[in-house]
Amino acid sequence: MPIVNIRDSNFIKIKSLKKEYLKSFCELYNINFSTKNITETISTILHNFDNGKISTNDINSFIRKLYISLRNDEMNDTGATHQEIIKELNKVDSHIWGMVQGDVDSHIQSNYVRKFYKYDEVVNAIRAGLYGSIESYTLSSWYNHWSTIFLEDLIDENENVIPIIKKVKGVDIIWNEQPVDIKVTNLPKEWFKSGYDIDYAINNPKMVCKYMYELQGAQRFGDDNRLFIIIYDKNRPEESWKIKRDYSLIKSKIDDFFNQKIELDAINFKYGNNQYLAHSKVMFILK
C-alpha cells in the first residue's frame, strides 16, 4: 500500500464514522448532511476540507473525543476497565498454551473423527480428552484477545494516533497521518531456523517486516501498511506471553514508540509469483 496524502487520510477517518456520528460532525461545523446518501455527505465534508472550512485538526479532535466517549461508555457498561482486564488475565497459568490457532479442526479430525468408527467409542474419547484441549484453546484465544484490547486502547489514546471508530479493511489506526494495520505477533519460527536471534531482529527491523509479509497465510494475505508488535522475553522466551499483561511495561513502551515522529519503512516483498510494496514498522516490547 502506498503512502497516502492528507486528504486520503482524512477520507479514511471520515469513512470510519457511522451515520449518526457523521451527522453530529456536520452539525458541529455547519456542513450539509444527507440523510439518504452517506457517500454524498463524505464528499461534502472533504469539499469543505479542500476549501479550508474545516481542518485536519478539526477532524482529528472530533474523532479523539468520540473514541474516548465510546470507550468510557463501554467500560461503564461492561466493567472491562484496563485494571479489571489485567486482574482477570493474571488468573491464567501456563497450562492453556497447547493447541495453536488453526489446529483445532485437524486435531479433531485426526484424533476423533477418523480414528473411531463406533459411536460409543468416539463419544467416550471426546468426553475423556477433547474437553481439555478445547478449553485450553479457548482460554489462550481469550487471553490473546483481551490482552490486545487494552494494548490497542493504549495506542489509540496517544496524541499522534487517530482511532478508527468503525472497522475499515486493513486499517486499525491512523498514525502520523498514515493508515496502519496493527499485528500483535511473534517472530516466525523461520526467523530462528535461518540462524537469526532476537538481537538480530532488533537491529534489522526492515528484514523482520519482510519476513512477516512473506510468511503470512494465503487466507489473510494483504499488502496493507502494518505495524508489527513483537513481544519477547529475552531471558525466558517460553514465558513471553506473560509480558502481555505487564501493563506498566506495555504502556511505557507504547508511549515511547508512538511519541516519535517517524515514517513507515518501504518494504518490497515477494508473495507467490508477484512482487509487492508495503510500508511498515516493527515495535519490540522486550523484557
Radius of gyration: 22 Å
Whole-Å distance between the termini?
A: 32 Å
Principal-axis shape equals globular
Q: What spatial order of strands do you see in the largest sheet?
A: 1-2-3-4-6-5
Count of individual helical segments:
11
Low-pLDDT windows of residues: none
Largest sheet: 6 strands, mixed
Topology:
Elements: H1 6-15, H2 19-28, H3 38-50, H4 56-78, H5 82-89, H6 104-113, H7 119-156, E1 161-168, E2 171-175, E3 178-185, H8 189-193, H9 198-203, H10 205-214, E4 226-232, H11 247-258, E5 265-271, E6 274-286
Parallel strand pairs: 3-4, 4-6
Antiparallel strand pairs: 1-2, 2-3, 5-6
Helix pairs in contact: 1-3, 1-4, 5-7, 6-7
Fold and architecture overview:
By secondary structure, this protein is α/β, with parallel strands linked by helices. The chain has eleven helices and six strands. It has three domains: 79 residues; 57 residues, no CATH class; 131 residues, no CATH class. The model has no long low-confidence stretch (mean pLDDT 91).
Keywords:
six-stranded mixed β-sheet, globular, 51% helix, alpha/beta, single chain, 11 helices, 287 residues
Provide a compact summary of the structure.
With 287 residues, the protein is α/β, with parallel strands linked by helices. Helix content is 51%, strand content 17%.
